[in-house]
Amino acid sequence: MGSGTLYVVSTPIGNLSDITLRALEVLKSVQCVAAEDTRHTLKLLTHYQIRKPLISYHSHNLSGRGPAILARLQAGESIALVTDAGTPGVSDPGADLIRQALECDYPVSVIPGPTASVAALVISGLPTQPFAFLGFPPPKGSSRERFFSRASALPMTLVLYESARRLNRTLSDILGFWGNRRIAVARELTKLHEEVFRGSVSEARDHFGETVRGEVTLVVAGAEPEASASEAEAEVWKAELEHLLTGQSMTTRDAVALIAARFHLPRRTVYEAALKSRK
User: Fold this and answer.
1) Phi-psi category of 9—alpha, beta or left, where left has phi over 0 and alpha has psi -120 to 50?
2) Among residues 151, 267, 153, which one has the least CA distance to residue 218?
3) What is the count of structural domains for the chain?
């Protein structure tokens, strides 16, 4: 007997009616469903009167649960992989299971459907091609600074996810690293309280404030060509930056913020110079 098939099944990002007929057929045909949150997926299955065993597969148990799922595939069981909302493998641990199944030469079949990144992109009003999907920014630390710094020069439309509780901070970081670009903030897509705010980054920050609920996707305009400062001007602010980092013993973050504000420079430019100086 051959191995079973891992079906990568897209599920609604909000409105349960957005599931495809093929997705329903697959969910009815498999031996079990691997879900990010079994309680959440149970609501979907119950709505469509589908009764299947559920096994949890999420970021906290993937190292142990992944081999168990692969063993069931090897034994001939077909399994549907679903995430809480949208397409598995996009900013969730399903990508690891898909990769492992492919490495074992098990059949993998995708059942396409909703994904918040594309839905937000097409409704944003910003150019839809080319675009770069960045996923979730790191929550804190130097990795978060590198995330925004490295993406700041990309000339295409940028799409990223963020939790509602960090939206205000992320809008502030986008403003600091990328500038006051055009942005669309899509909240609760396909749900009763769907909202798409379009405007500048600073306007979005003022609009949403500190308290936001729901799922959020951000679509940001790409970088415009930067006007380069003269060599003399660059020498002045770089020397001042060096002084702050060494003589004043300031943190990189504080020194970058001060120089960027004082000389009206993009934080990315100053941050890259600071990294070189630290080395």
Assistant:
1) beta
2) 151
3) 3
Q: Which of 138, 142, 139, 182 has its CA nearest to residue 158?
A: 182
Q: Is 178 exposed, middle or buried (0-12, 13-18, 19+ CB in 10 A)?
A: buried
In a domain, 1, yes or no: no
Domain-embedded: residue 226: no
- Strand-pair category, 195-200 with 182-187: antiparallel
Residue numbers of the domain that contains 255: 231-278
Residue given tokens 């705010």 in the structure block: 197
Whether residue 32 is found in the same domain as residue 109: yes
Enter the pTM of the model: 0.78
pLDDT tens string 65-89: 889 999 999 999 999 999 999 999 8
C-alpha span between 218 and 41 (Å, rounded): 25
Whether residue 130 is preceded by a cis peptide bond, meaning omega within 30 degrees of 0, is yes
- Asked which of 71, 86, 114 is the last residue of a domain, the reply is 114
